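quick one before i forget lol
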Amino acid sequence: MFAKVIVEYPIKTLNKTFIYKIPENLINILKVGMKVYVPFNVSEIFGIVIKILSQVEDEGYEIKEIIRVVDEELVLNDELLKLGKFLADSTFCNLITAYQTMLPSSLKIKKQKKNYQLFDEIISIKNLDKISEYCNKYPRRKKHIEFLERLKNEKEILKKGILKTVIESLIKEDIIKIKKENKYRINIENKHNKINELTPLQNKVYESIEYNKYDTYLLYGITGSGKTEIYIKWVENCIKLGKRAIVLVPEIGLTTQIALRFYNAFGSDVAILHSSLSIGEKYDEYLKIMRGEVKVVIGTRSAIFAPVSNLGIIIIDEEDSYSYKQDSTPKYHARDMAIFRGKYNNIPVILGSATPSLESKARADKNVYKLLRLNQRVGNGKLPEVTIVDMNEEIKKRNFIISDILKEKIQNRLDKKEQIIIFLNRRGFSTFITCSNCGYTYKCPNCDITLTYHKSTNNLICHYCGEQIKKDDKCPKCLENSLNYYGLGTEKLEEVLKNMYKGIKIIRMDQDTTRNKGMHEKIIKEFKEHKYDLLLGTQMVSKGLDFSNVSLVGVINADTSLNIPDFRSSENTFSLLCQVAGRAGRANITGEVIIQTYNPDNYVIRYVSKNNYDDFYKTEMLFRKKLKYPPYYYLISIKVVGKDYNKTLEDAKKVKAYLSQNIEKETIILGPTTAAVLKFNNEYRMQIIIKYKFDKLLLNTLKELDTIFINNKNSYLDIDFNPMRI
């Protein structure tokens, strides 16, 4: 017997498989989809079995034996093997990279063998008849006798904490036995609380989907309309049909809240997968899923690859979020992976959002997706009243950060013991530091951007590559004490608010404060318990959070994302502002939102103030059509990346010329130009944008280009299909 194995290998496009002989001891064990350890040249590496053969022809090389199976429990089934192939084909990554992406960090191909599984060792009685004999024979062994009496009463006792001499003696006498039971790091009480009844409108949406049939549904529901309750009911029905579910959320912080809702409904039948789990916790949750011990998987983007058998429904909450697109190779979108699995299993895929992406809404308008609407808040609650503040006028009154009306509203809520959320989508203290004497500005040595100052650590940090530099008291160039701090981040805003309102209790939620394990959960829990008056944060606070006592939301610098030079900046700004506004007035309290902006007449800001997604969608679609952007055209971003600026630019021009000669004339090629960030991690980046509707030559041409650049010593290609940013 032989196995066809795809191995971990550094060459990008090497999808070649190798034949290995299956040793006698593995013939009845080895399965397609197992991870194995194999000899390769003079080394030993990992691979995945993709086919088992009874015989082979001469391969032109010595056929060696598989050394061992890495983990007998880890088997990529037919669905996951095909999903990996789809992932590789649709993102231009090699197959082994696709399979590695689908595995948790403890089971990556490159990982050396380490057993992350924990066990409880449990002692029980093996021969009851021998206990009396033992006690009579050794009457002075008081601890042994006490333990045996306890064991007779309790039947089973954990080995941990029992004296080693007691255990060894009783095993030697053949009185007790020890068994191992799997132990999980995350243990949830097996409770199943009553699931809330749905409103008539919710129930209408709930009954609109068909099980055992593939369809993609777009659930467009305003903030506070109770989408999560419908998700829970869909999952409940799925479980009643004997099937399982995957629920995706965009942010780790949202996993906490939605997981609690599902824990309350389904108890220990829920597993979670996200990047804040430890390696051991991920391993445990992955094995729970693979063994079929849970019925619901909740997680961020990569949870779409969970080894869920008998899948019955896939739900993607806040489907418009950028977080569902991976920035590093392979550059997949979780929605595409979900649709593949939906078709494979012939099941419904639900995309939910209060501000659907333009692409999804356009597909719903064309009946590619089925549109479901929730246009009322639960309990007939009203959407918050939105006030737009023109900061150009406030500056005249010396209000550079907080407007008069927002100051007043914050004080009002503090007096009424109601809570406040302040949104500023920029972390740190100051966005850049410059010297007024010589003009020196702190910049990242690796990237072409200024460094952000973080006062709590006195570090200047690059928010692209992570480079950190200690800030000097004096200018490092002219040595004068003339450093000026510009820009506003959440750290500085926290300081301003504390000086403005004496005794105010503020908690900050951004990447800096949630870096440590468990901080997302801690911040959300403590704010919910009203241990703090004000939650200040970046986009982490904009979606999915449900706090009944929040009556005021303030938005500082609403133009931050609007000014980004990207075709999606208007859509992203509208989504962020609508979502964060929706955090106010979610229970019986009237909500109010203050949006501070320097562009009060901008159409995005106007539509946000009216919570008018439909008109925003129509307006934005007109711009997209005129400018030939999605959803009217498909986009591909090609970055040519290299260490030398001139050589990289030269290669980019060659790529443009090659494309021009080998794709259809209707396809639009823009560039090459410098990327949004020219220099990143000491590499220069030139960008070419392709816009097309249909081009039968394009895919093969890109594959040829990709192959040509494998051996290019100057630069390499970074190809991104349907990029979220350009």
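fyi The chain has five domains: 2-107, 127-174, 200-379, 382-427+489-624, 634-721.
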